[in-house]
Every structure is written in structure tokens, then in C-alpha cells.
Amino acid sequence: MLPFSQALSLGALLFCFIALLYMLLQVRHLPHQRNLAPPRGRGWEGVVYAYTKALLPWGKESSTRHLVSYLAGVVFHLSTFFALFLFFFSFWLKSVPTSLKAGGSLALWAGLLCGFGLLLKRIFTPYLRSLSYPDDYFSNAIVEAFLLVCWLSLREGEFPPYFYFIAVIFFLYLPLGKLRHALFCLYARAVWGGFFGRRGVLSLWGVKRTEER
Amino acid sequence: MEAPANHRLILEHLKRKIPRRLAILVNSCVHCGLCSDSCHYYLAENKSRFIPAFRTDRLSSLFRRYHTWLGRLIPFWTGARGVEELSLKEFTDAVFGECTMCGRCSINCSVGLDIGFLIREARKILVELNQVPRSLQSTVDKAVTTGNNMAIKEEELTGTIQWLEEELQQEVGDPRAKIPLNKAGARVLYTLNPREPKFFPLSIIAIAKIFYAAGENWTLSSTNFDATNYAYYSGDDQAARIIARRLVDEAEKLGVNILAVTECGHAYRSIRWESPNWLGKRFGFKVKSILELIADYLSEGRIRVDPSANSAPVTLHDPCNLVRYGGVVEVQRHILRQAVSNFVEMHPNRENNYCCGGGGGLLSMSEYAELRLKAGKAKVEQIRQTGAKVVAAPCHNCIDQLMELNKKYKLGIEARTIGEIVADALILPSGRVNPSTDSPSKKG
Ligand code: SF4
Ligand code: SF4
User: Fold this and answer.
1) pTM of the predicted structure, to 2 decimals
2) Are residues B233 and B306 in the same domain?
3) Would you list the DSSP string of B34-61?
């Protein structure tokens, strides 16, 4: 029998998964315009570009210009993936291996600091504040809470119930608020790459298409 | 928000006409604001309302209100807003008057949101509410009812073409040089921006000269010559379909292999990329920008040019719908490197180039003229930094905006089409370099 907190977190994860799947299916049912114009470039090349070159700090003007924010965002996201990884493995690991403690703590702290920095930026930069709603602040806060309990668990060497309770809130909120971008961003990025790749605007090798295919 | 009838129309639209791509995109914006300084409006005015994500948020907030769980339950939490909270005036200003749908933010969005697409989707809603700015709507209406956006009559066009043909014959010194009209079986149907026959006829001569030198089998249509499609800008798919169908029918009737689009960004995008979708069919002919044909002629040795005829420093503007959204990126550079002796790139360039501020139908919306000229500041700075005396702009709309910017900001440049620049450097089949070296058509 799983302890109550663990069972609850698995229930929340299941809810999160089903809700995201439902949203995805809903979106898939919306009208979609097929592209009938002959391509100039390759859609797949654009998708690969979107997931490789475009992610580099110098891949887009926006990331180069806002390098610190961009890198903070990257670290915050990587750290969150690491925390999720820990969550899944916590069901198998009775205690945290020492090899994971130091490196893991560092990753989580880096994520926490970056996330907090981004939160401060959102609060104190007028133009960002004008773009933000309670959802934006709460989403940041819940992820940070998740990172924090992850770090505390690493420090204590085991995963206490509060770790799972925070995970419950995290998974329940994920499909409801802005955190659902976790799913849709993957989709949007592929759509972006496919669109501009097909039009011959994005090219992996820097050679723009001069001829239609 | 005003009348309940409008509420119903918007709700109906949100219920039935939301495309998949829109839903994916509005679910993806993380409000990071990294797109802010991609936008020439924001750079010029530095106000929150000019952040790309802020503009699309009016549409996204409606989506959140009716299509998301939290938006339905506690709307304030996610910034979801219902139709009753929407100010039509603000919405119209944001999506028509304050965005050229240039897509520079789309290229630079940290996630990959196509803001230009979202803005057009928002415009579609305003089409249903009859809120398209009057000046833009009248341009669309003119095109739909008369066959071209300047209501040029067939006799008028034919008269202009006859006169231009005589000019052409004089310039090339060959009485057999022609500007063919309605020639069935031609390889190329060349289409125009109605501003050309109306105000800039010499840009037609320039292309006719290139066709003459290349020995091209081409034609113009005396009735369906208008390549532009302002319904693309207004967001009116039904009107866009009517306008596009005319060109397609004409190309099919004449049996051409290529429909060549004049130097006009949105015209190229509309017929090359959007029309097959609007009309629901693949075309039996190719759609090419005239630039692609000129580049082919140069590569194949069908025309030769003397770059010394264009010795002033020339820079190149990248029209958004031709380059960023059209994929015609390199051929214009290939052409200019051969046709001018001093070509200077502006920075940033290609898909990262700044919009001149005249796109998105803004040039025809006199309501927003003042802001349009302010928003052109980024372009003005780019041009200044090159030190160029000539700005090659393969788009008639951009040329109009550049001419206005030139006047307002005292740039001291000349804005010209690439066709005109090539025509000036053309080595005619008789061996002489084209005598007209100073086309008066597009002086700044
Ligand atoms: S960069 Fe993209 S994700 Fe970020 S605020 Fe702008 S549109 Fe939204
Ligand atoms: S599409 Fe162009 S004008 Fe519109 S918000 Fe983006 S950068 Fe600005």
C-alpha cells in the first residue's frame, strides 16, 4: 500500500495527464486549414530548427537581447524537469543516494534563484507587470514551491509527505493555469518551425531556398 | 462593449470559428515579454500597449473566458475577459491601427507564437462586426466591385499601356518591342499593383524592358491585372477569395505557366501562399515573384547588366510579406550584387529586418497615419546607418511609406523598385546600356 500522500500525488498526476489529454483532443477537433500552396523549404527542417538552433542563446534576437532573462528561464525550466524526474523516482528510491545530493541541490538552487529572479522581474518591471495576471505569479510560485520541497527532500535524504502534497497542488494546477504551456509550447514551437520552414525562411544550414519544391 | 448583437456575433465566432492553430498559440504564451523590442511600434513609443503579446491579449483573453476552465470560473485570475468588457474602439485600434502584421515578433517569440496570424484572426472578428476602418474597407470594396483597388477602367489601362509601349520602343530603339495584353499561350502573366499604372508607370516600363531583353513570352491582362489583395489585410476571407479567384481564373484562361507578381509583398504572399487555401485548390501554374524571374534571367545569361550604371550606394529593405512570410530572401540580393556597384546590407536584415511601418494595410488607413510614421523610426535609423543614397524596396507599399519617411525624417534617399534598378543597368540586346539612368518614378 502506498502512503496516503504518495497515492494522492499519483491521483493528481493522473488528473493532470487526463486533463491535458482532453485539452489536446479538444484542440485537435478544431478546424484546421491544410496548406495547399507548394512548399519552398522543408517543414521538417523548420521543426528541427525550432528545437535546435532557435533554442540557442543567440538563436533569436529576443534571447540575445534579453540574455540574462532567457538563460534564467532555461535554468528554471531545466530545474523543474529535474524536480519532476525526482518525483517519479521517489516512488522507487527509499532514500536519496548521496551522489545525487550535491549535484541535485545545486540544480534545484539554481532553478529557485532563477525562478525567483524572474518573479521579481515580473513584479518590478512595469511593462511585464502590465502583461501579468494572478495566474502568472501563482504559476511561478507553485513551481518554486515544488523546487523548494524537492531541495528540502534532498537535504533530508528522504521524501516526506509535504513533498507529495506540494506535488498534488502542482499537478492539479498545471492543466488549469498558465503552466499548461508545458504541453502547448511543444506544439506551438513545432507549428512555428513547420510554418516558417515550409516557406523557406528557416534553414538549418543557413541557406535559404531560392526555388519552390 | 456596445450592442448585444455584437456580443452574439463574437460569441458565435469564438464558438465556431476558432482554428486549431489559434488555440495552440493562445495556450502557449507565457507572458515573458521577450517579444517587446522586436516590434517597431514598441521601439518607437516604448509603451506597454505596443508589446506584441499585449496586443494579442485582447483576443487571448476572450479565448480564456470561453474556452478555459479557470477563465469560466474565476476570470480575473487569468485575465479572462468577456465580450461585455471589450471596447470595440480599443480592440480595433490595437489590431488595425497599431500592428502591421509584420511578423517580426513571430520570428522572435521565445516560444514561437505567430502574432501576425493572431492579429489577422482578431481582424476576422472585426470584419463580422463591420468594424474594419473605413478607408481600408473601401479599398477592399473597390477591388471587389471594380476588379482592382483603384477602380481603374479597362480603357484607361489600355490607354496607359499603349503610351508605355511607345515609350518602351523609344527606349530600346526597337519598334517591335511590345507590352502584350491578354495574350493567350504566353509563358508569363505579369500582374501589377494598381499604383503602377496610376502613379508610377515607369516601373511597368522597367519590367517590360527586362522582359524584352530576356526575350520573354509574356502578357498583361487588361481586366484582371491587380495583384494586390487588401482583403488579406482586412481579414475578410470571403472578399480575399473573390479577389484571388480572378487572378487564378485569368491565368488559367490565358494558359500561362507562370503568374508573376509585381514587387508587392502582400500581393505575393496572398496569391503564392494564401490563395490556394482560400480557394481550396492547387494551381496548375507556378506563382513567382518578378524578382525570381529576374534572378533566373541573370543566372541563365538571358539578361546582362552593367553595375556601373548604378554607382550610388544602395541598401535593401526586406518587405515583411515577401521575405519573412514569403520566403523570397536571397534572390533580391543576388540581383543587386550584379546590378549595382555599391550594395550595403542594412542591419538587421532578411527575416529579422524591421518593418517600414506601412504594411498590414496601414498605408491605406489614413486614420492611423501619424502613428504609422512614428513607427517607421526603426527603419529610418537602419537606413541612416548604411549611408545609402538609394533604398531598393521590392514592394510598392513599402516604397510609399519610405517616401513619406524620407520626407518626414529628411533622409535624403531615393526609394526604388529592384526592377527599376535592374532596368537602368540593363545591357540591351543591341549592346547599349539602357539610356534612361535616372528614372523619375520613385524619387523620395
Ligand atoms: S515572446 Fe512569445 S511567449 Fe513571450 S510574451 Fe511574447 S508572444 Fe508571449
Ligand atoms: S506583427 Fe509586427 S507590428 Fe505587429 S506586434 Fe508583431 S512586430 Fe509589432
Assistant:
1) 0.94
2) yes
3) TTGGGSHHHHHH--GGGSHHHHHHHHHH
